[in-house]
Design brief:
With about 210 residues, the chain is mainly α. It is built from eleven helices and four strands; from the N terminus they run βββααααααααβααα. The strands form two sheets. The protein has a two-stranded antiparallel ribbon. Strands 2-3 form a two-stranded antiparallel sheet.
Length: about 210
């Protein structure tokens, strides 16, 4: 599945990826977060979890609930979330501020333990993820998944992660800067490229 990528001119006369100009929430997210390199393990774990919650929904729905998710899941600290028990599951199922999907809630708790295992093995989630980064030219089409996202998904599933299909993983890669899918002409593209290269310089070789 592919879609043509283009830019639109906003009221501020800046050219953005078309999806990133549709709402004020998306403008802020597109301009300051999406595609900028992330090395912080809490944010990487958070994004993998939130992409799982987004399955079947729009990212805008999750984005607008993100602060609620952060409060509910202890800032997505995997060390804390891994210790959640049935009392926490019941609490989360009663939290109207998040997506109350039992399977996704239990998946997040499970994935926290898997994240700790990844950190033990590689030193950080960043050290695991960033060697998969690619540095191609601006995209002309949007792909829902790639061979790289498929390979990461397969490996994570082998490690016991759930709700990490190849489409979910590719959305994670786009958002965290492992790829730069800001299109040609987007005013953010070069800024995000500089940010992601700084992260790659530190974490691109993997375990230190």
């Amino acid at each position: 599945m592919t879609a043509v990528m283009n830019v639109v001119v906003g009221e501020d006369r800046r050219e953005r990826c078309s999806w990133g100009a549709s709402t004020p929430d998306y403008i802020a997210y597109h301009d300051t977060e999406w595609g900028f390199g992330v090395a912080d393990d809490h944010r990487l774990f958070e994004k993998l979890c939130l992409e799982g919650f987004q399955s079947g929904l729009s990212w805008l729905t999750i984005l607008r609930k993100r602060e609620n998710f952060r409060a509910a899941f202890a800032g997505f600290d995997p060390l804390v979330v891994a210790d959640f028990d049935e009392t926490d599951v019941d609490r989360l199922l009663g939290d109207a501020g998040i997506v109350r999907h039992q399977g996704k809630i239990r998946s997040t708790i499970n994935n926290a333990s898997r994240a700790l295992e990844l950190i033990d093995e590689f030193g950080s989630i960043a050290n695991y993820m960033w060697p998969h980064a690619t540095f191609d030219g601006p995209p002309t089409e949007f792909h829902a998944l790639t061979p790289t996202s498929t390979a990461i998904s397969k490996d994570l599933k082998k490690r016991g992660w759930s709700f990490v299909g190849p489409t979910t993983v590719y959305a994670f890669m786009q958002a965290m800067g492992l790829v730069n899918d800001h299109v040609d002409g987007c005013w953010v593209r070069q800024r995000s490229e500089q940010a992601r290269r700084k992260v790659y310089k530190v974490h691109g070789k993997g375990k230190r």
